[in-house]
């Protein structure tokens, strides 16, 4: 209903972008010029090393180490690449940090405002009600973003609440937040390489939602975001986030299981997985991978059903599921969604349809000065989102 975002259509600045996921840190340098598409000048990927079955308390220092490497790489190699390509060297004006799971907390909350005298509902009032509620209920969290999903007065939902005169109002809202101490450590790590630069935080799920609904022109869909170890699911109705869920199953689970059960390193396991998908393996390794895949599919079906049940108050979900990635692991998970009979039969009026968000879906809105093979839908979406806020 209200995203509390105020688009800026005429930026002229150079920014750095970091995306912190559960298994890697992505980084970019993007050039924004008035009335032109954003130009991606540099992009890099930095895996979080020695993950394995790491305990949650050990994941934070591993993430910060990868973030430090990514920041140092951007300073040295990123700007060097720009010079080699003879790209105009503007001063870096801002750094955007996008947090994926498990570094953010996304949820639907509600708040109430009641007064002795009637008052008018304004967008400013709604934002103040949301902010006050969040601060009181979550003192250890930093609110990164928020958007109102529903406004009720006297128990009735208001489609156009602005300007209405009421005694009491109930506000439902989506909030994206993060632990204050984690945000502080991330900012300190980045500022070691980029001192005196403004750092702004957002979450990956809401940023992908914002771009997907614009680019794909869909109002009702489920956005499925597969990450390294976990997956986020957003329920979008009437163009706004109505529900969120996190599934403790990521797109690298299969490759990690192959590595563990076949005593291989991750790169070799990924190669084996790709050969299996292309039907180029001998019978014995094919049988081993088939057994691993079937076990993974059964586990995934159970977790997916639980995640979908958490979305919204109704059991009828939109049939369109948009997977925010088109890698081979994500495509396998998309196939599993189509084959998960319980959710398909009970949670929709018809079976789910799955589409994969690709870089081609957004490429016409971007200019890339580097090979597009180094990019993915996530990086493109984040570059577009940062251009709009």
Number of strands: 15
Biggest sheet layout: 6 strands, mixed
Low-confidence stretches: none
> Mean pLDDT score, rounded?
87
Silhouette: globular
Quaternary arrangement of the chains shown? single chain
How many helical stretches? 10
Helical percentage: 25-40%
Q: Radius of gyration in whole Å, from Cα?
A: 22 Å
Question: Reading side by side through the largest sheet, how are the strands ordered?
Answer: 9-4-1-2-3-15
Approximately how much beta-strand content do the residues carry? 25-35%
Helix and strand pattern: EEEHEEHEEEHEHEEEHHHEHHEEH
The termini sit apart by 17 Å
Structural class: alpha/beta
What does this structure look like?
The chain has helices at 56-84, 123-137, 180-193, 204-215, 253-261, 266-277, 283-309, 328-339, 341-346, 377-386; strands at residues 13-20, 24-32, 39-47, 92-99, 105-120, 141-153, 156-157, 165-179, 198-203, 221-226, 231-237, 240-247, 320-323, 353-356, 367-368. It has ten helices and 15 strands. It starts with 12 loop residues before the first strand and ends with a helix. A hairpin with a 2-residue loop joins strand 6 (141-153) and strand 7 (156-157). Strands 9-4-1-2-3-15 form a six-stranded mixed sheet, with helices on both faces. A five-stranded mixed sheet has the order 12-11-10-13-14, sandwiched between helices. The mean pLDDT is 87. With 389 residues, the protein is α/β, with parallel strands linked by helices. The protein is globular.
In short:
By secondary structure, this protein is α/β, with parallel strands linked by helices. It has 10 helices and 15 strands.
